[in-house]
Structures are given as structure tokens and as C-alpha cells.
Design goal:
The chain has about 270 residues and is α+β, with helices and mostly antiparallel strands. The protein contains nine helices and seven strands. About 65% of the residues lie in helices and about 15% in strands.
């Protein structure tokens, strides 16, 4: 008993010490920087002092059965705190991963991985608050319905994925390329004028004019693009998207591939 009691107490003490880094990491998380977790950390520190004091008491002392039982409780208690701290940390990590996945899914298109309409709107609002000039592009794949009707939606999905990959390959740093839905895409180009956006559109057309090939199929798609500019054309999201949409439909109708919005286009639609 003289050896067992100190050994059990040391086991509990080591377990408490091992739980400290985990508890400290939890306490430093902004979401868990609460009085309860800080209190638990303080209690563990207090327990450590108590364990050290109990070891000091056992030193050079004949251990009784009661003291052995207390030492066993100390050992089990330390192990319990260690297990609880580790399980709590694992649960919190899984919770954060789940929240991160939900956040990603809320702002990204699951088929293509591009930012979705929600992320696009958030970025649009931020750029309007920043009040720096930018260009807004609305893009629509040409004859995509024919692809779906001819080859099926599973082929249409692969065409969309490849089209998105090509769009991303020419998206400038700092710009946002998003899928708004169906075969409609959009870009926000900070610092771009309408004319510099048109030059980028030429690169987009060069990427999309090439046939998409897979599984022995050669699928040809094009893209029609409309451009509006902040603050030249409008100073709110709804109007800028509407004007870019008008320009895009004009480009599709006139087979011009790209059109820059002008107020004369409103009269033609």
C-alpha cells in the first residue's frame, strides 16, 4: 500500500497535467471563452495543488486502507478529467467541421464548387460599400438547353463543370466568378472599366469556343456576356445586375458575344 497509494496519486496528477493543454485550447476559442470553461480550468489547477499536497502527506507515512482508497479516487478522478477534456475537444472539433461544411454549402454551388448566388450578393454588397469602380458581368451559355435535350442532364452537368473550370482559369486575382443558377454565371471585377472588362471577355470567349470533349463526345458551347459598370451605369445592385442582363440578352440576340450596357439598349428591349 505504501507504493500503490503514491503511484495512483501520481497517475491522477499526470492525467490532470495532460488535460491542461486541451482545456486551455478550448478556453481560448472565442466561442468557448466562457466563465464555465475558465472555472473548470481553475478547478483543475486547484486539483493539481491538492494532488501535490496529498503526495507530500503520503511521503514517509504508513498508508492506511482509507488513504489507499482516497488515492485510488484521485487516480480515477484525474483520468476522468483527462478523458472528458479530450472528448470535449473532439466534439468541438467535429462541431466546427460541421459548421464549416454548412457555411461552405450555403455559399457554394455543389455541382461546380463556384461561389453561389448568396456569396455573389454578399460580395456585391461589400464592393458597393467600398465605393470603388468595378465591372459586373452576367454570362449565359449559348444553346445549353440543346445540350441537355440531346445528351441528357448528366452530360449537361459535366459541360457545366468544364465551363466553370475554364472560366476560373481566366478569372483575375481579386475577382469573383459565381454560378447564379442553371447555365447563368457572373463575375465581379474590382477596378475594371467596361472596356477593360471587354478585353477579359475576349479571353473568356477564347476558352469557351473550344469544344468540350469527353467519353468520345465533342460538345460545342459558346457564351454571351453583358457588362455594366459601377458607378457609371448605376449605384445599386439590382440596377447593375439588370443592366448587365439587358446587355447580355442584346449580345445573344445580335450574336455579338459581348455587349456593354448603354441606356439605348433599354429602349430596344
Amino acid at each position: 500500500m505504501d507504493i500503490a497509494a503514491p503511484a495512483l496519486t501520481v497517475l491522477g496528477l499526470l492525467a490532470l497535467l495532460a488535460s491542461l493543454p486541451t482545456l486551455w485550447r478550448i478556453c481560448t476559442l472565442p466561442e468557448f471563452h466562457t466563465r464555465a470553461w475558465l472555472t473548470l480550468l481553475a478547478l483543475v489547477l486547484g486539483f493539481i495543488l491538492g494532488y501535490i499536497g496529498y503526495l507530500w502527506m503520503l511521503h514517509g507515512h504508513t498508508v492506511t486502507t482509507l488513504e489507499l482508497i482516497v488515492a485510488a479516487i484521485f487516480g480515477a478522478g484525474g483520468c476522468f478529467v483527462y478523458l472528458v477534456s479530450r472528448l470535449s475537444a473532439d466534439t468541438i472539433k467535429r462541431l466546427f467541421n460541421t459548421l464549416e461544411d454548412m457555411r461552405y454549402q450555403a455559399e457554394h454551388d455543389l455541382l461546380t464548387g463556384l461561389p453561389n448566388r448568396n456569396a455573389y450578393y454578399k460580395t456585391f454588397d461589400f464592393m458597393l460599400k467600398d465605393a470603388q469602380p468595378f465591372a459586373c458581368l452576367i454570362m449565359d451559355l449559348d444553346d445549353f438547353k440543346t445540350v441537355n435535350d440531346t445528351y441528357g442532364h448528366h452530360i449537361g452537368d459535366r459541360v457545366l463543370q468544364e465551363a466553370c473550370s475554364r472560366l476560373l482559369s481566366v478569372t483575375p486575382d481579386g475577382a469573383l466568378c459565381a454560378r447564379l443558377g442553371g447555365d447563368e454565371f457572373a463575375m465581379l471585377l474590382p477596378g475594371f472599366s467596361a472596356q477593360s472588362a471587354r478585353e477579359l471577355c475576349q479571353q473568356i470567349h477564347q476558352q469557351l469556343v473550344q469544344d468540350i470533349c469527353f467519353d468520345g463526345l465533342r460538345v460545342a458551347v459558346g457564351i454571351s456576356i453583358g457588362i455594366s459598370q459601377y458607378p457609371r451605369d448605376a449605384d445599386d445592385k439590382k440596377q447593375l445586375m439588370k443592366f448587365a442582363d439587358i446587355a447580355m440578352y442584346h449580345a445573344k440576340k445580335m450574336e455579338q458575344r459581348t455587349a456593354i450596357f448603354t441606356h439605348e439598349l433599354v429602349q430596344r428591349t
